[in-house]
Amino acid sequence: PVVFSSLDGTPALSVSLANGSPASQDGGSEPGPRPEWVDCIQASDMCNQNPHCSSRYRVMRQCLVGKEKEAMLDNNRDCQAALEVLLVSPLYDCRCKRGMKKELQCLQNYWTIHMGLTEDGDMDDSSPYEPVAPNRHPDMFRLASISSGMLTVAPKGFHCVDPEKTCNPCLDAAKACNLNSSCKKQRSSYIATCSKEDPNKGDTCSKKRCHKALRSFLDRVPPEFSQRLLFCPCQSVGCAERRRQTIVPDCSYKDKEKPNCLELRRVCRQDPLCRSRLADYKVNCWVTPQTVSTCPNQDNHQACLASYARLIGTDMTPNYVDSSFSNWTISPWCTCKGSGNKEEECLNFLRYFTDNTCLRNAIQAFGYGVDNMQNKNLPAPSVTANTGSDWSASTLEPPFVTMPKVKGFALIDYYYYNVACLCKL
């Protein structure tokens, strides 16, 4: 049986399918090769061209409207009949491309059919995005793997450009971003937005606008720039604090009070974008203790890093919890205190972030630089470009970068610099 449930995690409907899978569209009995998936916008168009499918699709949308959707899906015969028809339509196997133009519309179409959570309430959503190809060079990444019980320090293969000065790869990542027009523009935009006070909320910024600006940055800036800012390997508190402040956590990450993690998960699942990216993170970053590999898809670390980055800018935005550089922890802004009889479920969910060997290995591997070896034709830009003055080994960013027109951008870089200086004393 295939178990479906409502968006907030309560079981809603169980449908048994013949032979354990949807029937083939051509009615043949031969298994044959599985047809290539179509995106859910195309699948919706295909369904709307079929009167029988389109009528059931309209019914299904009505079943998901309002607070009584659980009862509708569980008890209403029209809803059950509509779902049974849609399970054998192109909508059942549809997927969405990451970063596609109509991504939100595509995801909404997907979740009209796939409301799937297991009966015990634990997260078991399948990813609505196109499948990720297995890593073609698993052995290379395995060399950089670490055990879950070890401290995560900057890799031995990392060397300072100037051995007389303290390394700060996160500062170098910021310099590289500022040398790229797109990265500089998008970074300036989200820092300004996330640093701006919201007049409707007193001293607090608009988290909604901040998240939108962060998503724009991560969607539009190539990962060789954005991921260097997020996953730069640190050997000092100043570097780790700069890395933690990358997403301007006072606005994008923190809040006045920490919600319960299960409540945060429930809120995330109400939003198609957040729910989709959370499911994609689990699919690409979580393996069971019995699995031989430390990451899914043959230790595909890059897939894990990409799905983690795409969570930033949603209600489930994760971040480094403090400025530790030797034993860092990543978590969404939530707690399991006060979970009552659901404490174990809450802790299990939180471990997807705090005790995730795949994610730690992926970030550690990124520090070695091996993730970029698959893209040898797209090297990270040099940060020692000739700008008329020797600033490449300095803790300061070049003057034309640190004094932009956006006030919030200059202030936050000034803050980073002072933290780095204080940590050297």
Automatic annotation (TrEMBL):
<feature type="disulfide bond">
    <location>
        <begin position="234"/>
        <end position="239"/>
    </location>
</feature>
<feature type="disulfide bond">
    <location>
        <begin position="194"/>
        <end position="210"/>
    </location>
</feature>
<dbReference type="InterPro" id="IPR016017">
    <property type="entry name" value="GDNF/GAS1"/>
</dbReference>
<keyword id="KW-1015">Disulfide bond</keyword>
<feature type="disulfide bond">
    <location>
        <begin position="295"/>
        <end position="358"/>
    </location>
</feature>
<keyword id="KW-0449">Lipoprotein</keyword>
<dbReference type="InterPro" id="IPR037193">
    <property type="entry name" value="GDNF_alpha"/>
</dbReference>
<feature type="disulfide bond">
    <location>
        <begin position="261"/>
        <end position="334"/>
    </location>
</feature>
<dbReference type="Pfam" id="PF02351">
    <property type="entry name" value="GDNF"/>
</dbReference>
<dbReference type="InterPro" id="IPR003438">
    <property type="entry name" value="GDNF_rcpt"/>
</dbReference>
<dbReference type="GO" id="GO:0007169">
    <property type="term" value="P:cell surface receptor protein tyrosine kinase signaling pathway"/>
</dbReference>
<dbReference type="GO" id="GO:0043235">
    <property type="term" value="C:receptor complex"/>
</dbReference>
<keyword id="KW-0732">Signal</keyword>
<feature type="domain" description="GDNF/GAS1">
    <location>
        <begin position="261"/>
        <end position="358"/>
    </location>
</feature>
<feature type="disulfide bond">
    <location>
        <begin position="170"/>
        <end position="232"/>
    </location>
</feature>
<keyword id="KW-0472">Membrane</keyword>
<keyword id="KW-0325">Glycoprotein</keyword>
<feature type="disulfide bond">
    <location>
        <begin position="47"/>
        <end position="53"/>
    </location>
</feature>
<feature type="disulfide bond">
    <location>
        <begin position="205"/>
        <end position="251"/>
    </location>
</feature>
<feature type="disulfide bond">
    <location>
        <begin position="285"/>
        <end position="304"/>
    </location>
</feature>
<dbReference type="GO" id="GO:0007399">
    <property type="term" value="P:nervous system development"/>
</dbReference>
<dbReference type="GO" id="GO:0009897">
    <property type="term" value="C:external side of plasma membrane"/>
</dbReference>
<comment type="similarity">
    <text>Belongs to the GDNFR family.</text>
</comment>
<keyword id="KW-1003">Cell membrane</keyword>
<protein>
    <recommendedName>
        <fullName>GDNF/GAS1 domain-containing protein</fullName>
    </recommendedName>
</protein>
<dbReference type="GO" id="GO:0038023">
    <property type="term" value="F:signaling receptor activity"/>
</dbReference>
<feature type="domain" description="GDNF/GAS1">
    <location>
        <begin position="40"/>
        <end position="118"/>
    </location>
</feature>
<keyword id="KW-0675">Receptor</keyword>
<dbReference type="InterPro" id="IPR017372">
    <property type="entry name" value="Glial_neurotroph_fac_rcpt_a1/2"/>
</dbReference>
<feature type="disulfide bond">
    <location>
        <begin position="177"/>
        <end position="183"/>
    </location>
</feature>
<feature type="domain" description="GDNF/GAS1">
    <location>
        <begin position="170"/>
        <end position="251"/>
    </location>
</feature>
<feature type="disulfide bond">
    <location>
        <begin position="336"/>
        <end position="346"/>
    </location>
</feature>
<keyword id="KW-0336">GPI-anchor</keyword>
<feature type="disulfide bond">
    <location>
        <begin position="268"/>
        <end position="274"/>
    </location>
</feature>
